[in-house]
Amino acid sequence: MSPRRLAVGLDIGGSGIKAAVVDVEAGELVGDRVRVATPEQARPDDVARVADEVVDAVVAAGPEPTVRTVGVGFPAVVRHGVTTTAANVHADWIDAPAAKILGAAMDRDVVVANDADVAGLAEIRFGAGRGVAGVVLVTTLGTGIGSALFVGGVLVPNTELGHLELDGQDAETSAADSAREREDLSWKDWAARLQRFYTLLETVLQPDLMIVGGGVSKKHEKFLPLLTLRVPIVPAELRNEAGIIGAAVMAAESEQS
To answer: Which of 76, 134, 172, 191 has its CA 20 to 30 A from that of 89?
Structure first.
């Protein structure tokens, strides 16, 4: 029996930085999951320092990764290791060589991608999108709205569909889970906003399946049944572990390319 392929997945967010060792063949966390609060203002040097500490902690706890590269999900558009936007982190990340900054701090090879894209990758490989042919759209509802679009299992990166215009503003401004909390919306009232957003996505993309993730997806029974769409829309299965798992899979595959 060949040894398991184990890689570190790192999920960097505006409020927390979390990581674990992942069995990339099974799509499962092994060993301890470590989470540390994101440094205040989330400047590059501070984030890189904490990311290094988190990765060191999960590696020390074992088991030992067999993949040297660390995969990172980051809240930004990412092109060739460079973060060209910054959501819920410091503006110094805009046009920053994120892979080089994080890799230097960890003294490891690092591959970086948009956080919603890596979470979507995990859902496609191991979660609600597993085995689904055609066009699959994964959205994450949280502080904003992240999106990951797959065609025949292949990612179309950096779609950023939460920034589509709805009522003259970014859709995520009124339809993200943070808007529900900020405005103290009922599930019914929030679902009405989601209805308009997902109807727009359905009309423009005509996907075969839509998957809804983010922390609020664990309460999916309160709002998904209120939506009326032609396309099936289902809750994500991996939830808060999706970003870590997807980042680890991306790291493992980067060493095979």
So the answer is: 191
